[in-house]
Design brief:
Layout (H helix, E strand, L loop, with lengths): L2 H20 L5 H12 L9 H4 L2 H16 L5 H4 L4 H24 L4 H11 L4 H11 L4 H32 L6 H29 L6 H22 L3 H15 L4 H9 L1 H13 L10 H26 L3 H6 L9 H13 L1 H32 L4 H6 L1
Length: 392
């Protein structure tokens, strides 16, 4: 089995698998993960080691695209109008998830580094699952608008928290326990250097955008700058996620054209598909028996923290009762960003990363199956799902 044959089989079988499991209302992401497990080294062995070994590099590229597109949400004239409710809810559930998961894992005896990384990954959500439910229910109203705004900025909080936690783990892993100074040296470099890199490259892309005359030109510019930003970030040992997010933020604020984002969205799904299947193939099945308590703790702590953090953030921001009561249920899904972060951890910390990536792959299936039902319940109970019934 060579790489091209395996990749061809992945794309073709992914269509079949998503259609078959789709009839049972399985999300596409879950069907791709299941296919990856079946094609992986512990079942059918259809994915060659060389392709499987490139998963972490593919994760960096895919997350670079995701982060670049996230930057589009921070158009200044729109972002400054975002209600304090959105910032309060998103900050509450993201920080709450990070703290709760990390503390719970420490309680069950997990190492500090591992607990911090799990906590950082727990912040991320899967906005696509939430958006699809809102579209399916044709939900319109204050609750749906607030939920959409929260999921738009949620992963941005997640990337920032992940960069901070990764900086702490690097300090601890190096045995540098001098505390505050070392932490701010490493984490500060992660944040400031990545932000500066993204801003400079975003400024350059904005200046050369005048030479983009066609969609093909825009696509080449977009892919080229995302790849270049990712490569320079890795070379400088700073966060490629934050750099690409700042790249997108700079471009969307300095240019009136959003074509750079639109053309990427037309071609990015095949990369996501390949990424999800390889994530499934990377599942360390022998480790599953050792992560039962870990997986259950992660799921319970994350769900409770997402709901509780969103409720508390909404309460402090003074939102109406139905929003703070149900909006946390719309933030349960977790998929692409979390999987990518787990694989990045695996690339930097192989021993700890194997446990983290296996746990995240396994729990993603649970979150992607249960998450849409939770979102549907929340929208209906909030009184904004009736539009689907009226227009059906």
């Amino acid at each position: 089995m060579n790489e091209f044959l395996a990749a061809g089989m992945i794309f073709l079988l992914a269509i079949v698998c998503s259609r078959l499991l789709g009839r049972a209302r399985f999300p596409a992401v879950t069907s791709y993960l299941v296919l990856g497990v079946l094609m992986g080294p512990y079942v059918l062995k259809l994915v060659p080691p060389s392709l499987l070994g490139a998963t972490d590099k593919l994760a960096s590229f895919v997350l670079g695209i995701v982060a670049f597109n996230l930057g589009q949400n921070f158009l200044w004239r729109r972002f400054r109008k975002i209600r304090k409710a959105v910032l309060g809810i998103s900050c509450g559930e993201a920080v709450g998830a990070a703290i709760a998961v990390a503390v719970c894992l420490l309680i069950i005896g997990r190492p500090l580094q591992q607990a911090l990384l799990f906590g950082a990954i727990a912040c991320a959500t899967a906005p696509m699952a939430t958006i699809m439910v809102l579209r399916e229910l044709r939900a319109r109203g204050h609750f749906a608008e607030t939920l959409m705004d929260v999921v738009a900025v949620d992963d941005a909080w997640g990337l920032i928290i992940f960069a901070l936690c990764l900086g702490i783990v690097k300090v601890l892993d190096a045995g540098a326990v001098r505390g505050v100074y070392m932490f701010f040296t490493v984490a500060g470099r992660e944040l400031l250097a990545a932000g500066l890199l993204g801003f400079v490259l975003g400024l350059i892309l904005s200046l050369v955008s005048r030479y983009s005359k066609t969609q093909t030109d825009s696509l080449i510019f977009s892919l080229g700058f995302v790849l270049f930003t990712t490569g320079v970030s890795i070379r400088l040992d700073v966060s490629p996620l934050l750099a690409n997010m700042v790249l997108g933020t700079t471009v969307v604020n300095l240019t009136k054209r959003h074509l750079f984002f639109d053309v990427l969205k037309k071609i990015d799904w095949p990369f996501y598909l390949l990424f999800f299947v390889l994530c499934g193939a990377s599942l360390e099945i022998p480790l599953l028996k050792d992560i039962k308590v870990l997986g259950i703790t992660y799921i319970v702590a994350r769900v409770v923290a997402k709901y509780g953090g969103a409720y508390l953030g909404g309460h402090l921001a003074g939102v109406e009762h139905r929003i703070k009561k149900y909006i946390g249920l719309g933030l349960i899904p977790q998929a692409g960003v979390a999987l990518g972060l787990a694989l990045m951890v695996k690339g930097q910390f192989p021993e700890t990363g194997a446990i983290i990536s296996t746990t995240i792959v396994a729990t993603t299936v649970v979150f992607e199956l249960a998450g849409p039902f939770c979102t549907r319940f929340a929208v209906t109970r909030a009184g904004e799902g009736q539009h689907a019934n009226r227009e059906a």
